[in-house]
Amino acid sequence: MNSQPRAILPRRTSGNDFWRSPHKPLFLCCFVWAALAIGWWPLGAEIGLPAPEIGSPVHWHVHELLFGFGGAALGGYLLTALPSWTAAKPMGRGCLRILVLFWVLARLTAAFAGVVPLAVIGATNAAYFFGLGAVIMRVTLKVRLYRKAGFGIAMLGLGCAEIAYLRFAALTPHDALIPIGTVAVLCFCLLIIVVGGRAVPAFTRNWMLRMERAGPQVDDGSRACVLAVFLLIFVLVCLLVAKDALAHIAMIVCGLTLLRSMRGWRSTHTLANPLLVSLHLAYLWVPIGMVAVGLLGLFPNAYPLSSALHAITVGAMSGMIMAIAGRAAARRKRGELQARQGFIVGVSLLWVATWVRLAAPMFSESSGQIIIVAAVMWCLSWAALLADFLPGLFQPSPHPVLSGEKHRPPDREADASEVSGHPAPVGAGCDKVL
To answer: I need a surface site. Which of 154, 168, 275, 333 has the fewest CB within 10 A?
Structure first.
């Protein structure tokens, strides 16, 4: 009998590694579609590409960025977080492939809305959100994690909202569809507040403990955040029952409340960490956007509402997606995440693109050209992030995917999982605080 120890061979990588991690295919879809959708319209119109239509190119543009781009990012995040929440096994590869297939079919049918029946477009598009919601509901209810089951209900709600949007988009002029688009945007804001309102200060606190930064502890402002959630729900109810003036006042109060919740986050102390800065800046666009949209609801002639919504869709929603998804491609050094160059370039371009897009209505004679500049910067920002993300697609995923090691103050007793040296579940660190 040979007593020589067997050599430990390096783990072989294959396509199976790609499908073992939900964030890989879904974030990949998100990044690629972010660039392709804007590349088709409005950039494609400049070189004569036929415009996509769901009622109008603008309707398609709104639909694809909210439900296509945003939907892929939500799926990648929630399915990565799910095993950490429930201690269940990660999602099966077959089920993940079906969800990605639904998402791809939704993009294809929406792109050919001129020849595909509306019922088929609605069914293929809603199937992704219904499938995603069903997976989350099944796993969370099985372990009686009712609070997290709310994310599954939210996905089912987005599926219903998408059907409603497609129906109205086929029959409604662009201006008349703005209130429906506003409701959809505010629904995404609600998810950002629920997720980001806890994740951003938690990431910040963890990093500051690791760096042994002096000063007061990070205060997550949880009470103000909870109040903002209820205010935003109130806003949505008011908009749905056509109490617009009351909704806009509540929106302003909600934005100011969110600013209050951020007072203890010590945002200015994170400038040395691009991963954290991007989270803080993206979240900051939520209250800025909500106050701006609320004021424009009361004073509609001051600035175009459709442009103001880009503070939320580009600044907050897209910024938060990039900030969280970019963590999956970050370097790992002694338990700490470190931003790669492509991420820094991408976040910088996206931040500037937001301001450029918001500035466009102020220069009426050249607003079209300014919008094109913003669109080019948008596409380049996602291409830069994609360049960081591609090399790790078929390699084993790090654990946790979206955060580094968790740290506690020296005078507090660490639990066994934090000092054992064993890898945390997928998504731990970020997902434990949600």
So the answer is: 333
